[in-house]
Structures are given as structure tokens and as C-alpha cells.
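Thought: the user wants the 3D structure for the chain below. I'll pass the sequence to the structure tool as-is, report back what it returns, then summarize two notable features.
Action: structure_tool
Action Input:
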Amino acid sequence: MLKTEYKKILGIDFGTKKIGIAVSGGNGKFGLPKCVLKNNKDLMQNLIKIIQEENISEIVIGESINYKGGENPVMDNIKKFVNEIKEKFNLPINFEPEFLTSSQAKNIQDDSDMIDASAAALILQSFLDKKNYKKD
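Observation:
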């Protein structure tokens, strides 16, 4: 039986110190935590490696909003990060509203080194659910 290679979506939970990374699985049906990257000078090189290895075709990044629906201060950093990604990669980039995803991740798995990756998976899953719902 031939293995069908499909394009995957990368989920990102941006933080000023750490970046959570998730990748879609199951032919785009669910988001899986992958890793946590340090937000440092090696970040883009690490992203390039993941994007190539995982056959990424699209990126989803958490949009940090407050209780009133306005942007949190970290959104300025997220926008700069998105501009860097756009310069390096020719991939569609989507924002997905994220609200307390790190807290949700902690509730699911307790506190661990993979919290940010799990938060990225929750962001990605929300995006995939909406995308797959529209297909049906």
C-alpha cells in the first residue's frame, strides 16, 4: 500500500521566551504537540528545519486577545514575528484567537516542559475544527 504524503499545518503559540510548536496529523484532522523552541537567535533556523521535515504548507499562530476582545501587549511582538516568517517562508499564515490556552494545557496535562507545545496544539485544533467543519 502506498503511503500518501499530505501537507501539514504548523501551529504556533508565541511567547517572548518560548515558542510552542504543534503539527497537524490525521490528514489534517487533529493537532499534535511537537516541541518547544527558545525564542532566541536560532529560532528561524529551527523553524526552517521543522517546516521542511514536516512538509508544512500553512501556519497558524495564536492571536493574543484580552477579555474585552482587544489585542494584548504581546500582539506587537507576534506581528513582528509574523513579518519575519513572511520574509523567510512563502506560506499562508492565519491567526487563530487563543484565550487561556496555556491554562487549558496545564489542566489537561499538569505543568511540564511541553505546556507551550500543548497550547500550540489547542490553537491548531481550534483552527482545524473550523476548517474541517466548513468542508462537511
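Final Answer: Structure generated. The helical segments are 43-53, 74-88, 101-109, 115-135. Residues 103 and 115 are 9 Å apart (CA to CA).
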